[in-house]
Lipoprotein (Sulfurovum zhangzhouensis), 102 residues
Amino acid sequence: MRLTSFLAFGTVLFVSLNLTGCVPGPPPPPPKPKPMVNYYQQGYNDGCWTKRHAGMKKNHYLYDHYYSYRKGWNKGYNVCKPMVKPLPLPPVKPKPKPLPKI
């Protein structure tokens, strides 16, 4: 009897501890700006990186709340050139003229 109650208690404890780990917590707070950071330069670097690589690198919090980051990101995205040139399209062959009917 003692072994059975010990196993039951252990099982209940194990299950309850595992279920508490599945409860989602509050979302993490947005990143706080660091003092003395050049947000224009950071935005420029992120915008240029986005243009040169596949994928997006943008801190949406800084983009929405800091004019200098947004201005730098847009400038970097518009000025930088992609590192990989797109493949040229194959030349288009003209359609042959139909033969005249005799």
In short: The longest helix spans residues 2-20. Residues 39-83 form one domain. The helical segments are 2-20, 39-52, 60-65, 67-79. The chain is about 50% helix and 0% strand.
